[in-house]
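Below is one protein, fold included:
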Amino acid sequence: MRTHTTDAAAPMADERYLHLLSHTFPTVADAAGEIVNLEAILNLPKGTEHFLADIHGEHEAFLHVLKNASGNIKRKVGEIFGNTIRESEKKELCTLIYYPEQKLELIKAVEQDVDDWYHITIHQLVKVCREVSSKYTRSKVRKSLPPEFSYIIEELLHERSDDQDKAAYVAVIVDTIITTGRADDFIVALCNVIQRLAIDQLHILGDIYDRGAGAHIIMDTLRQYHSWDIQWGNHDVLWMGAAAGNDACICNVLRLSLRYANLATLEEGYGINLVPLATFALDTYGDDPCTEFIPKLLKGTKMDDKTLQLTAKMHKAIAVIQFKQEAAIFHRHPEWQMEDRCLLEHINLEKGTCSIDGKEYDMKDCHLPTVIPVNSEQCIVNSYDYMNGTDIGNSGNHNSSLLTLHSSLTKEEEALMQKLHHSFRVSEKLRKHIRTLLSHGCMYNICNQNLLFHASIPLNADGTLKSVEILGKQYTGQGLMEYIGQLIRAAFQNDTPAELKAFARDYFLYLWCGKDSPLFDKSKMATFERYFLSDPETYKEEKGNYFKLRDSAEVCDRILDAFGVKGETRHIINGHVPVHASKGENPIKAGGRLMVIDGGFSEAYHNETGIAGYTLVYHSRGFQLVQHEPFTSAQDAIQRGTDIKSTTQIVEMSTHRMLVADTDKGEELKAQIADLKNLLYAYRHGIIKEKLRG
């Protein structure tokens, strides 16, 4: 179908397809014109891709990186103006581009001749906009322009004030913008266009959620962003599980938010009502200091002692319920081999110990008033009918032999969970954000010879792809990632059979903490041990084989081969495990085949990594890794012109400047050109008639 020939006797492409194509290109002139257009696009420089991972709710730093294009805009301003303007003026211009509305207000409050400032600034912004738009077609740039200023911006971009024949024309345009009182709006529009054109495609390699306070703000921004994709991370999947109604995931989401004293995303972002949890925690743990559950306060977080104590009690309350909810799911799925993680069932409260693998360990905290025998009147068996996917309450329609001592909710805990479950399920904004993750996301992506995923590909000890069983079938590598993606989507589809939907809902927990989950890939998640046991040896989580073997070029090549990624410059790009840059760890591994770009956006990781995140930039010249220092605040950037201090490391440079023809998009365009040439052939040989106008 794709083969073009001039031999009149040669077989034609599928005529039905060509007839459909002829509706879009009804004449020889239309088809030929589009071929010229597409051939020209193939020879434009490749668009700039930005890769970020593990943002963890740090919305101000993330938004600033988008606004400054990981330092690219600052670099372009320096190149354009050189020594013709002062460094302070370049800084002011950059800040204006990043935060136009706020910066305009500050400038107008102190600028004595604002009209003169408008003239100078508009011309400067047009130069920057012309530079960032130079690698795109006029059509693409036009689509990026705000409708109200589209014509004006396009005229200014393609006319130069140093052209004597057009100098007066350009001057009048700028004068009229100012005299009609539209200068502020025009400047804001220009700055937004510069930001948009500086990044052609944004790839997020997982973990938008948890720790930081603004995951919902990040999601609001992405819903409006021009071109992006996400490879789901373990924290994203945890929130997806909570939205799908997995109560263990709901508990984990709440526990992590309380651990970092971050309730903004829950309460302000999604309207989750935490009053029932606070009431329950005070009633149940009122006299308990909850020492091990005091939240980790990040820089700038202020909390009075009363609120701190309440947060700690809520933290402990939901953690205990979490372990019970997890146990119920682990018992439902013995094939996961995770029943050894039902550690509440191995506590001896009289001795103050917990038994793990036959060895007893001392408990740090034995105040567990809701951990009681299963046959007590205070206690009910977890009331979820797995087969039918319905709540059955305390109706007695359960097999109590499946659950042992301490694994069930009290009546009070059950009532609390019903309220929390309802709050998550009715949050319209959460539903919108999860739909956005589903529509823009997947478990992995292959783009321009790069294999993207969040954490790992399960491997055997010899580096071969590990076979993972799901619902009685074995999956490896690409097949595993694709089937997991199907399961995730099945949990949200109305036409999914009830039994499969119930399993898919449960499987979110396995993705969060299962040892063969490509989003976790460790021997265990030692949450219980860290809270309750004294011996640090129990905290150890052994990493899976992927993390042990990922420095091997041979192993990386085997993974790339399994996913069908071809080319001499192919790579794996992922995040998940923070790179300890301060200790000299190199994010570039396996001889350049693997790039790990989790540099610790979250403040919680800054001391661990020594930096505040990476951006991997892939432009027409090759790869550059941008290492970011901690961001102060947007307010500081606006008022003082501070920027994220970034250091650029050249990772891999191409021997030639890459064009659109060298990309996946180029392959699509070449296929379109082949189809159009077949259509031309059909027109010229009378196989299909032109639809002449008039």
About this structure: Residues 1-11, 380-405 have pLDDT under 50 and may be disordered. The CA atoms of residues 244 and 492 lie 7 Å apart. The chain is about 45% helix and 10% strand. The radius of gyration is 29 Å.
